[in-house]
Design a protein that fits this description.
Length: 759
């Protein structure tokens, strides 16, 4: 029998939606048009559970929406779907809520003739396989707003929901749903604790040791008049509160009374006033005359009339080490309700003997127990604290990110953060520089001031942290350093120290014994969470930039030419290691890419200038002179200049005409030119029919024909017997005939003339 009852209870507890949803999954293969009303998310059917209670009941004055689970289980989209809702007291046809004559156009077209008065269509199409509104469709009223029902009378109500898909449905048996919803009255005892001062927003939070006055309010409330009896409230003081004041009187009180127990401060309050009420009545006693009810005196509060109590709580500063708090807690402990109780007095193995009695029942909770207790908090404390409010790097005070390698500085902003303005703190700061690549930590400090020649505006001499001069409420400490390339974290950490360690105390015998309690100059920092700050930095070496210049006399660069080379390097991050105002010297490496190393550049090692370099026989062709600059961290920059080295050839010839010949040419092979006497020539040089006779003629023989680009210069002087009053010209026979060679005529000596030609 018990197993049967349990099974029945289980089935009764499963909602219609849950059962129909499982059934729907098995019917997912339907074709054509098919829409199903699977259930509701709100309201749910009210069901009696195994204990006699009602599941899914709703309270009087609770606003109810109509949230439906509708599935298009067919294969075609639905374009017309109207939903009607009607709520009636069970057993009647009187509608108290619903869509009335204007069904909700959940799926429709506003231009449709079947819109039935609803001004707005929620959707124009309902896709196959989808749940309407993702499984929670809110039914709307004729104005297009959510349809709601706010019951005002307790009882059972029948909720009827229907779908009208027009002709777009193949099974009309799953379009309607009807179930019962139970509306019940609700009963409540509410508590409210408030601070009388310093809490205008009623947060329940306060600060300071006080004393703080508070008020406790309690009220019987509900949807209908009811009269609980002997409503007992409990008020508890907790935390760091004071029992007595300096005069020995009660410091913390409730209704004027001090704590009843110094170890556990709990007060009791009772609502209501003594009232003679019925406390028992046997309704099953059939004796004649009927038995009269039993009356008694009970404390009965008035319905919806608040009752108040007052109290005071004071913080115990003498017993506070750091941040402290105290609280006031009020809660409903118990109350009596007068109820009809059916009791089987037959006992096991006997015939049932059920007696209906009106009797008092103990209760510790009500229908809305979230407001059966309330809490007030007050925080206070006397604590010592200094803090690091920021850590930055570089004169630009970067809080993190990318920085240039080189001379920089670490900065930490520190602050007086204690609760007492009159207390001063002496301090020191240490910086931890952690290489995130190797995890190696370098600790810098202690640092007591800000003395950085690169940032004179930030310089500050050491001073205590405090609110009264000469102490300072805030301070920026700094220390210079050279930042190497890499990823680093920079942590600034402050600690309280003995004032004798710095220039604020001239005692030479002081030592750092903070935290032991033996040094009056020290305090214990009670908040380590703000003692350090960390920034993450990517330090980048942008490296040097070098420019190579060359100075050489005008003319071709040939063997024997002397040249001066100079390198100018720029590097804004090259460090100044000794802080003398001059960046460390960079290294210079000189070279030329000849077949054999030129020892001339060895004399220029590490120097920015390399003068008087002489071109020698190894520099044939287009050698490149390079200089490489290396900075503090080994980063390099190279610049170079490529030279074109020219060769020279000279020859003289004594014949009918004397020839002096010079050529400057480019090439790695020797170039030679030879001359021989030639027969005299009679020829029409101009092609105009005129005849010219040579004074002297000679032939040339060369090792190679050079292109114009490979010839820097070519000069030839031809001397011969002649008179100055005669005009002479120089010609050569080319592939297309005789070609004039523009030349300058001069007299060498009496009887000797010279034609000079240059290219």
């Amino acid at each position: 029998m018990m197993a049967m009852l349990m099974l029945t209870s289980l089935l009764a507890s499963v909602s219609v939606f849950e059962l129909e949803d499982e059934w729907n999954e098995e019917a997912g293969g339907r074709a054509g048009y098919e829409v199903e009303l699977l259930g509701t998310m709100e309201p749910r059917p009210s069901i009696a559970d195994i204990s006699g209670g009602i599941r899914n009941a709703v309270d009087v004055d609770e606003e109810i929406n109509f949230l439906l689970v509708v599935l298009n289980s067919g294969t075609n989209p639905i374009t017309e779907l109207y939903i009607s809702v009607d709520v009636t007291p069970t057993g009647t046809t009187t509608s108290v809520a619903g869509t009335g004559g204007s069904p909700d156009g959940a799926v429709c077209d506003d231009t449709s003739n079947n819109s039935q008065g609803n001004p707005v269509c929620a959707s124009t199409s309902f896709a196959a396989g989808d749940y309407l509104a993702y499984g929670s469709y809110a039914v709307r009223n004729s104005l297009g707003d959510p349809l709601t029902w706010t019951p005002t009378v307790p009882g059972d109500y029948t909720v009827t929901i229907g779908l009208d898909p027009g002709e777009q449905d193949s099974d009309l048996t799953n379009n309607d749903l009807s179930f019962t919803v139970t509306v019940k009255d609700w009963y409540d005892i509410s508590l409210d604790l408030t601070w009388d001062n310093d809490d205008p927003d009623d947060t329940g939070e306060n600060t300071g040791t006080g004393p703080h006055d508070f008020t406790l309010s309690a009220m019987v409330d509900g949807s209908a008049d009811w009269q609980p009896r002997n409503v007992d409230l409990e008020v508890t003081f907790g935390g760091s509160f004071a029992l007595q004041d300096s005069m020995g009187g009660d410091a913390s009180t409730f209704e004027g009374f001090g704590c009843p127990d110094p170890n556990e401060c709990v007060f009791t309050a009772r609502m209501g006033t003594p009232t003679n009420v019925e406390v028992y009545h046997n309704l099953s006693d059939e004796s004649q005359p009927p038995p009269t009810p039993t009356n008694g005196s009970r404390d009965v509060p008035l319905y919806q009339v608040a009752e108040t109590w007052g109290g005071t709580i004071k913080g115990n500063a003498a017993d506070c080490a750091g941040a402290c708090a105290m609280y006031v807690l009020a809660r409903v402990v118990n109350y009596l309700s007068y109820e009809l109780v059916a009791t089987d007095y037959g006992g096991p193995g006997h015939e049932a003997n059920i007696v209906n009695e009106m009797k008092e029942v103990n209760n510790s909770v009500d229908d809305r127990n979230a407001n059966n207790e309330d809490l007030l908090n007050a925080a206070f404390g006397v604590y010592h604290d200094v803090s690091v409010t920021g850590v930055t790097v570089g004169t630009g005070h970067s809080p993190g990110g990318r920085l240039d390698a080189g001379n920089s500085a670490l900065y930490a902003a520190i602050s007086h953060s204690g609760s007492e303005d009159e207390v001063e703190y002496d301090w020191q700061v240490e910086f931890d520089l952690r290489d995130l690549g190797t995890n190696q930590v370098t600790t810098i400090g202690p640092v007591l001031d800000c003395d950085n020649a690169l940032d004179p505006d930030a310089m500050m001499a050491h001073a205590n942290l405090g609110m009264a001069f000469p102490a300072l409420p805030e301070f920026t400490v700094c220390t210079p350093l050279i930042l190497n390339p890499g990823m680093f974290s920079v942590t600034a950490r402050i600690t309280l120290i003995d004032a004798s360690l710095t220039n604020t105390d001239v005692d030479p015998n002081g030592d750092d014994d903070c935290g032991t309690g033996s040094n009056s100059d020290c305090h214990v920092d009670m908040n380590s969470a703000n003692d350090d700050r960390t920034g993450i930095y990517e330090v980048v070496n942008n490296g040097p930039f070098v420019t190579l210049t060359m100075e050489v006399a005008d003319g071709p660069v040939m063997e024997g030419t002397s040249m001066d080379f100079s390198a100018r390097a720029l590097h804004t991050g090259q460090p100044d290691s000794n802080m003398d105002g001059e960046a460390d010297a960079m290294m210079y490496d000189w070279s030329v890419n000849t077949e054999e190393q030129d020892i001339q550049f060895m004399s220029c090692a590490a120097l920015s200038d390399c003068p008087a370099i002489m071109v020698n026989e190894f520099w044939q062709g287009t050698p490149t002179v390079s200089v490489t600059v290396t900075d503090h961290w080994g980063a390099t920059s190279t610049d170079s200049v490529t030279l074109k080295v020219w060769n020279g050839f000279s020859n003289s010839f004594d014949g009918a005409a004397d020839v002096d010949y010079d050529i400057v040419y480019y090439g790695t092979l020797p170039q030679w030119v030879n001359f021989t006497d030639a027969d005299a020539v009679d020829a029409d040089l101009t092609g105009l029919g005129s005849s010219f006779t040579s004074v002297a003629a000679f032939s040339t023989d060369v090792s190679a024909i050079l292109s114009p680009g490979d010839v820097y210069s070519e000069d030839m002087d031809v001397s011969f017997a002649g008179a100055p009053d005669t005009q002479y010209s120089l010609w050569y026979q080319g592939t297309t005939g005789w070609v004039s060679m523009p030349s300058t005529q001069s007299q060498v000596e009496v009887g000797t003339m010279m034609l000079s030609w240059g290219n």
